[in-house]
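Let's study today's protein:

:::
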Amino acid sequence: MMYDDLGDESGEASVLDEVGKLIWVEGGEGAYDEALGFYERALLIRRRLGEEQTIAESLGSMATIHLKRGEITRAEATFREALQLRRQLSDPVGEILSLVGLGAVHHARGELKKAMEIWNQGLELAKKGGDRDLIAVFLNNIGETHLALGDLDAAALALGQ
């Protein structure tokens, strides 16, 4: 039986998200558009159900696709909505992931100092949480941004860490 046959809208939304992820990972022509369609359908269900945690997750996935498609303004708005929800829910990992994305938005715009500011906020949260993978993501992004700004010593320090 399918979730929609059972009337389990939450389960249906979860499946839509997973299918979106699968399509995105597999890639191919039109993959971003197709994956985004699944995420949008899941988000509609989740908004109707009021599931804030999963709404934030869907928004994060959608924002990443917007960013990869070069839709910077849409990506920023979507990351900001996800960040707001994640802060309201006291979801530090979700907040950190949203900050990774927001920094990337500013970096894509050429607002390197703003990107660095956001990534430094995220780095501090990641250090508090002890998440070594996310610490590494921030240090890499910060180091690459220092390189772009021509600050080789700071870049070497961040990338060396």
Remarks:
- The radius of gyration is 17 Å.
- The longest helix spans residues 31-49.
